[in-house]
C-alpha cells in the first residue's frame, strides 16, 4: 500500500517543469485597526482553483512560522504539489500568507516567547489574518461554503485547530500537520500557554472531526509529547483521528508535510472522502 501511494504521489510531483501549475497569485484585503485610524493592507495568497464554475469544496492551508531566524519572512510558502493533487480531486486550495510573511503587507509579530501574554497575543495577531481570509472566502460564490476544511503545518496546524474551535460553523473539518505554536519547552515554563494547554482548550465543546498527522523524530516535540497532545484533545472531548509516521532514522519528522507526502496522502484522501469533499 505504501509503495502504491508513493508511486501515485511521485507521479503528481514529478513534473516540476509544469511551473504554470503552481497556482494563481491573488491579493486579499485586510483592515488594520490602529489607535487613531484604520488602514487597508494587502495579503498575498496562492489559489488553486479547479476548472469550471463550481461551487467547489475548499481547503485553506496555513503556513508555519519562520522559527527563530531560520526561515526568511519574505519567503512565500506555496505547497504546489498539494494544490495540484486537490485540483485533480475537484477541490480548491487557498494558501494565505499572514501579515509580514511572503508578499503580504504589515508586520510579522508572531513572537517566540513562552509567556502566556506573548503566546495569546501571537495567536490573536495571526487569527486576524485568517479573519481577512475568511472574509474573502465567504464572498466567493464558486466556493461551497458547506465544504470548507482548514489545515496547516506546524504553527499553522495549531492555529487551524484553535481558529476552527472558535468558528466551528464555518468548517467541515480540520487537518493538523505537526501542529504546535511553540516547541515543547513551553510546557514547563507556561503550562496554560503550551501546545498541550492550547489543544486541550480547543477540544472543549468542539463538534468538528480532526485529523492529526505527526512523525517520529520531530525536533520540536518528543514522541511522548505528541502522544500527550492527542490524548488530552480526546479526553477534553475532541474528535480526532491520529496518524504517527515513521519516516526513517535520519528523517526530520517536522518536515512531514513538505517532504514526505507519500506517507500521508492516502490518509488525507480517506479523511476528505469521509467528510464528503471527494
From TrEMBL:
<protein>
    <recommendedName>
        <fullName>Peptidase S9 prolyl oligopeptidase catalytic domain-containing protein</fullName>
    </recommendedName>
</protein>
<dbReference type="InterPro" id="IPR029058">
    <property type="entry name" value="AB_hydrolase_fold"/>
</dbReference>
<dbReference type="Pfam" id="PF00326">
    <property type="entry name" value="Peptidase_S9"/>
</dbReference>
<keyword id="KW-0378">Hydrolase</keyword>
<keyword id="KW-0732">Signal</keyword>
<dbReference type="InterPro" id="IPR001375">
    <property type="entry name" value="Peptidase_S9_cat"/>
</dbReference>
<feature type="signal peptide">
    <location>
        <begin position="1"/>
        <end position="19"/>
    </location>
</feature>
<dbReference type="InterPro" id="IPR050261">
    <property type="entry name" value="FrsA_esterase"/>
</dbReference>
<feature type="domain" description="Peptidase S9 prolyl oligopeptidase catalytic">
    <location>
        <begin position="119"/>
        <end position="176"/>
    </location>
</feature>
